[in-house]
Amino acid sequence: MTAAAPPAQPATRGQVIAWGFWDWGSAAFNTVILTFVFSVYLTRAVGDGEPSASAALGWAVGIAGVALAIAAPVIAARADSAGRRKRATGVWTAITIVTMALLVFVRDDEQYLALGLILLALGSVFWELASVSYNAMLCQVSTPATMGRVSGFGWGMGYLGGIVLLLGLYIGFISTNDDGTAGVFHIATADGWNIRLVALIAAGWFLVSALPMFISVPEIPPDPNRPARIGIVASYKRLVEDVRAVHRRDPHALWFLLSSAVYRDGLAGVFTFGVVLAVAVFGIPEDDVLLFGVVANVVSAIGAFAGGVVEDRVGPKPVIVGSLLGLIGVGVVLLFLSGPTVFWVLGLFLSLFVGPAQSSSRTFLARIAPRGQEGQFFGLYATTGRAASFLAPSMFALFVTLFDAERAGIAGIVLVLLAGLLTFLPVRSPDRSPARS
What we know:
mainly alpha; Growth Hormone, Chain: A; transmembrane helix; ATG22/LtaA_families; MFS_dom; transmembrane transporter activity; membrane
């Protein structure tokens, strides 16, 4: 695999900050739409709280994951070759924002459930595709010596963006008033209008936050050794060839993609089922879940920032291993304790470890990807992650079913994290030297 030349000029501090603001803005989809607000609105209000609505949400997101797994590596590789990585990020970001804005039409009526699920699933695909190219741009705004801090800065900005946005939306549009309206603006709640308006505001937030990166961060040059335009079938043939080349060149890189897919699904399970467990098992009031999300984002941001600093000294592997050990330990303790206070304390410890694990996984891959092929590698990263995305939900459901208790689902997630850790331990740490071919 022949690599393209590195960027001619190192990124400025302003370009790094602009790059981080995409993460800041993307919290509008990941935190508000997918995790804490709109998915809950779809299942609890539009779907009348029926288990079938939650199942439909799972199927919709699962199908979206399959579509992403098929498309991500080839789309990213084509963007790398053509020197259109930033352009690809912009296109997928714009389409994500459009799907978010269209959620304003999803009324509190079961007839609109299908529309909401389709838009949510499409948004998750487009957001992930944007993230693939965006993550590959990490190599354009950092050096091997600063990659950990820059990645941690981006993750931290994402968490902080989620904090600011969640607080603002909770105070302005979501908290309930005695007169039946919501927030300090006394927004009407009939027909889910306040939540639908939240989706529109979140779309605008993402748009404004993403613009600085597209203005200030330069595009990568095209790879002269790879044709910019190739057919779809040829793209997949090249993908297979490149996977084989990765295995020949560095088997540890391929093993990292597989092992990280397992533990990253465990991390996703912590977020996906954390809200359900908080309410059903630990007795957190539904209104307080949003406040917990705000505080959890603060703690996760601190963890991401700190993990990035530590990583630049010791490398990404110790940070990932330490974070996974922390998550497993806290998960085991949660199996045996109860009460809101317990969840607040231990849930925040979970948040502290999630940020560094995510950020250092991104830099681990960026350090082992050949120069000029970062987008393709992050496409494979997304693909392997989606291929394993059934693990945490399946293990959670299996343990809940076997023991007829939602608390038992924690054990399923812990086992996924443990499997990810054990398969990750043999992976060799990446070279941290400046040279990268």
